[in-house]
Write a structure and sequence with these properties.
Two copies of one chain form a homodimer.
Chain A (H helix, E strand, L loop, with lengths): L11 H12 L6 H11 L5 H13 L3 E5 L5 E5 L5 E5 L5 E4 L5 H11 L2 E12 L1 H6 L2
Parallel strand pairs in A: 3-5
Antiparallel strand pairs in A: 3-4
Chain A binds a DNA duplex through helix 3.
Chain lengths: 134, 134
DNA sequence: CTACCTGCAAACTTTTTGCAGCCCA
DNA sequence: TGGGCTGCAAAAAGTTTGCAGGTAG
């Protein structure tokens, strides 16, 4: 979990995964990354893929797009506000944010998209956890 | 999957779930909703909870906050752009969006948060799928 | 009455983890 | 050489689904 203090080695597997993500434009899933890696390194395992994706993300070399189910939270009403998730205590806070319809319209037009909804989440430390963690 | 054309009944289970979501402020997970419902209706099952959450969401009565793993997609680099997910073909497109640092600063200050990253996703129909689905 | 809904349990999907051996620094 | 890293496989976590009976409208 905590890779902060840990030295990190540069393995062939990790390099291959990173190279693939740098050259692809498809935003692959872990499954798709695993399949691609098997072509280049038939003995690679799923565990290795997941472990390296975590490490690469912690190093800030890649990032994740969370776009679909699991670890979903529910609330009533339509989503006309955004959310903050505390990385430590996992609490979710509602945020009153200036509405993004301006931005949404702009993007719809520019990319010719039909946008039905959006999801804006900020991650970080809540006031209480900021005190505890220095 | 497609509840659009289906008449929807008003069952006790569904009403209890909706009532709970209306009065709670905690953004519960499906698991937490299930545990709460068991207090009010000990025989309720997980399947019923999930099915009703889907229905309530399709009706627009509740909404979901997707904030953590699974169905994650990866890409290289740090996330300085936002994404669009097509609900039909599942393709993910990068969007060049005016940066949100202004908004981020404003929110940090107002809510006393330490924000380390954000995730902005728009959902809808991509140009190709708009043609197919009328 | 009809067909949507429920509880139950099994199946599925995706991710995590323990372990013994490997190999990068 | 040491300790992070790997492949393998089993386990865990979370969600979906088939079925037979229940119930709202």
């Amino acid at each position: 979990m905590d890779n902060n203090a840990m030295p990190i080695r540069n393995t062939n597997q990790r390099q291959l995964i990173f190279d693939y993500l740098k050259r692809t434009l498809t935003h692959p899933t872990a499954e798709q990354i695993f399949q691609q890696m098997r072509k280049e390194l038939p003995s690679i395992s799923f565990g290795t893929v997941y472990r390296n994706l975590d490490i690469l993300e912690k190093q800030g070399l890649i990032s994740t797009i969370i776009y679909s189910k699991e670890h979903v939270r529910y609330h009533s009403g339509t989503m006309n506000h955004s959310h903050f998730v505390c990385s430590v205590c996992d609490r979710i806070e509602d945020l009153e944010v200036d509405d993004l319809s301006e931005l949404k319209n702009q993007i719809s037009r520019r990319y010719k998209l039909k946008i039905s909804k959006h999801n804006l989440i900020f991650y970080g430390l809540c006031p209480a956890c900021q005190k505890v963690y220095k």
